[in-house]
TrEMBL record:
InterPro entries: COX6B-like, CX6/COA6-like_sf, Cyt_c_oxidase_su6B. Its main location: mitochondrion. Disulfide bonds join 30-65, 40-54. Transmembrane segments: none annotated. GO terms for cellular component: mitochondrion; respiratory chain complex IV. The keyword Mitochondrion applies. Pfam families: COX6B (PF02297). It is found in: Mitochondrion. It comes from Poecilia mexicana. This is Cytochrome c oxidase subunit. Component of the cytochrome c oxidase, the last enzyme in the mitochondrial electron transport chain which drives oxidative phosphorylation. Keywords: Disulfide bond, Mitochondrion. Belongs to the cytochrome c oxidase subunit 6B.
Length: 80
């Protein structure tokens, strides 16, 4: 199972269609994947598990979100 998932991440090119966000404007999709990545990482780290599955969310938000937004959100997370 994990080998198959890691293969999907390796072959990842761009964000796939997500039925939760059918519109052209992908702002919500971008932000949701950013949140999902950090939640996933937090939960799996707390359980002392590998955070490899979280990489999917990171790749999706990196392909959808403008860099300036990500930097702003990172700064906000660091400041609490």
């Amino acid at each position: 199972m994990s080998g198959n998932f890691e293969e999907k991440i390796k072959n990842y090119r761009t964000a796939p269609f997500d039925a939760r966000f059918p519109n052209t404007n992908q702002t919500r999709n971008c932000y949701q994947n950013y949140l999902d990545y950090h939640r996933c990482k937090k939960v799996l780290s707390a359980k002392n598990q590998k955070t490899t599955p979280c990489e999917w969310y990171r790749r999706v938000y990196k392909s959808l979100c403008p860099i300036a937004w990500v930097q702003k959100w990172d700064e906000q997370r660091q400041s609490g």
